[in-house]
Amino acid sequence: TSRRLGNGRRVPLDVRSTPSFSLFPGQIVAVEGKNLKGSEFSVSQLRQLPRLQHPGISEREQGIQQFSAVVAIGPYTLSDNFEYEPLADLVDHAIAAAPGVVFLLGPFVSESHPMLREGAVDLQPGEIFAAKISPHLERLRQGLPASSCIYLVPSTDELCYPYTCYPQPAFGQELLSQLGVPDGIASLSNPAQVSVNGVVIAVANIDVLFHLVKEEVSRLPALSDRLPRLAWHLIEQRHLYPLSPPPMECAGILASQDTKLRLQTMPDILITPSQLKHFVRAHENVVLLNPGYSSMRLSGGTFAKISVHPQSAAETKDTLLGDSTKAFPADLISAEIIRI
Question: Is the peptide bond between 329 and the residue preceding it cis, with omega within 30 degrees of 0?
Answer without folding.
Answer: yes
